[in-house]
Amino acid sequence: MLTVKIDGVEVKVEPGTTILEAAEKAGVHIPIMCHHKNLNPFGACRVCLVEVKGSPKLMTACTTPVADNMEVITNTEKLQNIRKTLIELLLINHPLDCPVCDKGGECLLQDLTYEFGVTKVRFDEKPNNNPVDHTNPFIERDIDRCVLCGKCVRICDEIVNVEAISFINRGVETYIGTAFDQPWNCEYCGQCMSVCPVGSLNNRVYLFKNRPWHLEHTETICGYCSCGCTVIVDYEDNEVYRIKEDVDKGINKGLLCAKGRFGYELINSTERPVAPKVKESGEFKDVDYDGAINIISDKLKSVVEKYGSDSVAVLVSPRLTNEEAFLAQKFARDIIKTNNVYSLETADVLPDGNYADVESSDTLIVFNIDITESNPVLGYSVRVAGRREDSDLYVFYPNLTPLKRVASEFYVYKPTELYKEAEKLLKALDGENNEYSELADKFKNSEKPVFVFNPYNLKDVEIAKQISEKVEKVKLVPAKAKNNSQGIVDMGCVNGLKPGLVETEKSFDLREGIEGDKIKALLIFGENLAVKPEYFDIINLLNDLELVAVTDPFFSETAELGNVYIPVATFAEKDGSFTNFEGRVQQLNKAVDKGVFSDRKVLVDLMNKFGFSVKDDVNEIRSLIEEENPLYKGIDWNGGLVKYPYRIKDGISAEFSIKGDGEYELYPAFLRLHSGSYTRRSYDLSKVYGEPLLEINPEDAKKLNVNENDYVTVKFGKDSYKFRVNIDKKIPAGTAALPKDFKETAPLFFEGSYLKVDLIKHI
Ligand code: SF4
Ligand code: SF4
Ligand code: SF4
Ligand code: FES
Q: Which of 134, 522, 628, 646 has the most Cβ atoms closer than 10 angstroms to its Cβ?
């Protein structure tokens, strides 16, 4: 340890610590502008200059490492004058439009101007007056307000790894822009905007809607994917104005993706009903909440009396909290007395590796998933490992992804070839000499091998299982899809498993139950079954059931097929917990109230109607969970990692299959902006990606004689489907990618996830 004195305060620090870090430890404030703790030291603004005893030169605190017995002085008149002059220089051309700048009130330049008492501008220069750039759908760029701290450029390069923006020109001509002023080649993550200390990069979804000092803040967990990012919900009068990160909080370390950051408009959506609805003579009419609960409970009682308990089924969505999912299965099992609890989630695969394992991995394989799109913040961790000199990243996928920039090797294969290559890799792991021998040796002999894969593709799960048997130290990372994909499994909401993964005596198949006319009443908590390809053929049979009660924040396609609908809260409107892909349980905190109840309240009220006494209280429900779920006994509900009994179930076996005999191999695309029914409700996300696009290679586009945005007919067997095309050279010729989670694509993907189709220009 080194001993350093900062303004007379002595601290002991590790070698390599900067003066700035040592000062923080000593509780001494040094002003900064271009420094960010998650970025490489830059030393551009000089605002952090300090005096070091014995040194004739001033030093930048953010870049200078301390030496043993160093004495630092941070606050002399000379230093303050220099800092003041630096701020004055920054203000020479800076438009003083603070009253109309969205950054007003949380701008570092404003704060430093105040701190150093800059009351006059001594230089006689005119403020810049360049046009404001609105070519990025989410980020406004006003180069006149830029102080050239470089944080945006560095975060886009060092962490996001996209390099969408850079310093353009030199000297006084320098500005932040895109290469040749082309449109932003951007992931819309908003990371650049989040680190901009001034009003140069602004959130367009929030722009001019509120002032920061009016906003209240609640820390909670993102309600989109299973990364489990900590978000700060900013709101006033129950209206959410923006979602932000906190660099000091959460597993995401201040990073978010486009969905998490900009996709919050669904919470405020005017399309959200507040009154429950009941179908009468084919028409829905609004009823009050108690009326809806009475109708559901009365109907359930009569169905159970007439047809028995097993005529009822409960379907649970991974959007529910752990507490809600637990109550849903308890209602089915302990009150209705049926094991017919179902979800579209999987317990074949359970969490194993975590973020730290991924980031510190020395050999990492990402197999058949575009992790940068499906789980963007996990994607950043993969990029961290990929960038490290002492680690190697190998990616197998049907098209190039942003991981290409950091991968040691990126194997692009058509789906039919991809699995043959995987077989070769498995054989190489068994000692066969082939083109993957080197990779196999490295992977097997690694200290920290990691395998990231798609847990919903059974063949991929089987491959992961084999990998785990052949590579002793491997950590598996199943990239689960939704915010509580794992939690609802743990809470006993997948077929055949009770809370704590305890097996039930009987299993249940929803399709069989509906097709075989065994199910007469179906309670659907949050799931939008009607857009799921797997149920496309039987979804209309819901009309024949005696009761289909649906809860959802929106009156979904599934709700339309039901006979009772109760609008419920989104993630920002409730307390509880989610369990992320790592198996980490995290606390959810209610930020706003939109005048609807949560699924938790609906379940508590239904249970009470059946004479079961339980309070709508998160802590009380957690006590019940801890009593009945051994995995959650004594868990820390805000950050605890669940210990799972297995990683991949035994006996998983699957064959890759591709149906059809067309010329093009069609495979499901992963989308950052869309992954389900929530994202389509956020206006700005939908503006950027409003309909499912068929991605094809430029060569194929030429062959088909189509241009960007033209329509193409996808022919599969006798059926034809029409989609707009997106021409992208990352898609290999002879293949086409299409997102699966749209109601328009559900009928096609009902045939299978991988299809051989024909493409014809649509006229
Ligand atoms: S939004 Fe993300 S990808 Fe786009 S420029 Fe900013 S940091 Fe880079
Ligand atoms: S746009 Fe913002 S973050 Fe980027 S260099 Fe300018 S002031 Fe810094
Ligand atoms: S990565 Fe997932 S959890 Fe994180 S902000 Fe994006 S959608 Fe939300
Ligand atoms: S904060 Fe140290 S040089 Fe900018």
A: 522
126-267: what fold?
Alpha-Beta Plaits (3.30.70)
Which CATH architecture group holds 664-761? Beta Barrel (2.40)
Measured between alpha carbons, how far is 565 from 554 in angstroms, rounded to an integer? 9
How far from chain centre, in Å, is Cα 416?
A: 29
Three-state helix/strand/coil letters over 409-453: EEEECCHHHHHHHHHHHHHHHCCCCCCCHHHHHHHHHCCCEEEEE
d(CA 363, CA 446): 6
What radius of gyration, in Å, describes the C-alpha atoms of the chain?
A: 28
Which residues are bridge partners to 739 per DSSP?
Answer: 669
Instruction: Specify whether the CB–CB gap between 506 and 515 falls below 8 A.
Output: no
Distance from residue 726's CA to the centre of ligand 1 (Å): 21
Exposed / middle / buried, residue 57 (Cβ in 10 Å: 0-12, 13-18, 19+): exposed
The residues with which 341 forms a beta bridge, in sequence order, are 314
Rounded to 5 degrees, φ, ψ at 585 are -90, 130
pLDDT at 291: 97
| β-pair type (735-739, 664-669) | parallel
With a 6 Å cutoff on the Cβ, whether 712 touches ligand 1 is no
Q: In what order do the strands lie in the sheet with 2-6?
A: 9-13, 2-6, 70-73, 49-52, 58-60
Q: How confident is the model at residue 460 (pLDDT cuts 50, 70, 90)?
A: very high
Q: Is the CB of 201 under 6 A from ligand 1?
A: no
pLDDT > 70 in the chain, percent: 99
Q: Which two tokens stand for residue 254?
A: 């201040």
Structure tokens at 613: 């006494």
Q: Which ligand is nearest to the CA of 196?
A: 2
Tell how far the Cα of 507 is from the centroid of ligand 1, in angstroms. 47
pLDDT band at 674 (very low <50, low <70, confident <90, very high): low
CA-closest residue to ligand 1 atom 4: 186
Residue pLDDT, tens place only, 144-164: 999 999 999 999 999 999 999
- CATH of the domain spanning 277-345+484-641: 3.40.50.740
Determine the distance separating the centroid of ligand 4 and the alpha carbon of 112, expressed in angstroms: 13
CB atoms within 10 A of CB 64: 22
Backbone CA torsion sign across 244, 246, 249, 251: positive
Query: Can you state the percent helix, strand and coil of the chain, rounding each to 5?
Result: 35, 20, 45
Query: String of b and e for 311-324 (b: at least 16 CB within 10 Å)?
Result: bbbbbbbbbbbbbb
Give the pair of three-digit tokens for residue 310: 């097993």
CA 230 – ligand 1 centroid, Å: 19
Predicted confidence at residue 680, as pLDDT, reads 77
Class of domain 2-75: alpha beta
In the prediction, which pLDDT does 127 show? 76
| C-alpha–C-alpha distance, residues 468 and 450, integer Å | 10
Q: Nearest ligand, CA of residue 482? A: 3
**pTM for this structure?**
0.95
61: its two tokens: 């605190």
Write down the pLDDT at residue 185: 87
Is the Cβ–Cβ distance between 662 and 716 less than 8 Å?
yes
**pLDDT given at position 78:** 95
Q: Which CATH architecture has domain 355-478?
A: 3-Layer(aba) Sandwich (3.40)
Residue pair 4/13 in contact (Cβ under 8 Å)? The answer is yes
Please report the atom of ligand 4 found closest to the CA of residue 48: 2
**Ligand 3 atom nearest 379 alpha carbon:** 1
Instruction: Please state the domain extents for the chain.
Output: 2-75, 126-267, 277-345+484-641, 355-478, 664-761
